[in-house]
Amino acid sequence: MSSHHITLTRYLIEQQRAGGRIHGQLRLLIEVVARACKTISHAVNKGALGGVLGSAGSQNVQGEVQKKLDLIANEVLIEANEWGGHLAAMASEEMDTIYTVPNRYPQGEYLLMFDPLDGSSNIDVNVSIGTIFSVFKKPEDHAGVTEQDFLQPGRNQVAAGYCVYGPQTTLALTVGDGVALFTLDREQGTFVLTQDQVRIPEDTREFAINMSNQRHWAPPVRRYIDECLQGRDGPRGKDFNMRWVASMVADVHRILMRGGIFMYPWDQREPGKPGKLRLLYEANPMAWLVEQAGGSATNGCQRILDVQPQKLHERVAVMLGSKNEVERVTGYHREAGQTQG
Ligand code: AHM
Ligand code: MG
Q: How far is the C-alpha of 277 from the C-alpha of 210, rounded, in Å?
């Protein structure tokens, strides 16, 4: 059968059969998340016609203005996931604290974390946005569920992915067996496998960073970007191209498809914050996807997946993508004696 006929359901059933890589409950969880992404995709597509654009007039716990679609996407994910019996609790970039599955539903053993609508600044201008998700198992040593249960290093993830709402709606998924991409077939209403075992080239001539922050960066990041900008006349001996969508999902998707390096480093605008992006909802799932596709992901000093979270909405510096470039910029941090990202 051609790969055009492998639906997400079939892919997951085959993963379940293949040495029990995933459990039936995890399969259900991933399918429910994918179904929620379909609903979000429809809302995104309707745009102004659906009355979903603009600000919701509220702020999240991190002080960011929430858009209507941020809240709609958050609701869709909660409603889809709370009743199935596969989850113990959820945490979201848009909620102050964890959301425990209500008592009226059975409690499962998984924890789901998500950024319901990533790239919020692009919602109203019709540029690609997405949903990012990450799944862990709840520690088994106690009953009930607490915020502490979510503070696990990213290497403990059992599933991670994103759905990008762009010209096509594409779901990227890993359950630890490489990265598979599924495209939403709108006529059929199903996600269809369109690429398996995605590989990120080890070398690249493309970087993604918000250059407007250049004057605030730390010396190792400045050095790396300065050398790229010098092109073939500089120490790198080759010209580089730059892309910045301002939607991490879209930037990471491009890197999965053709390579590149993405960076949102620490900068001195807010010296107390390690970076802009959130460890649990953004950095961890993307880092695992990138590693599963043969790339690397660090905070400049440490592998992202080894960072021990201290709090739910923790932020982290992010450098991910083509292996040799991520290793280079991480090496520049090491040479500069920087030991904390
Ligand atoms: P969000 O989750 O509130 O949308 O913020 C995260 C986004 C990322 O998708 C993107 O890489 C970054 O913020 C863009 O930031 P900036 O506007 O500083 O370029
Ligand atoms: Mg985000």
A: 13
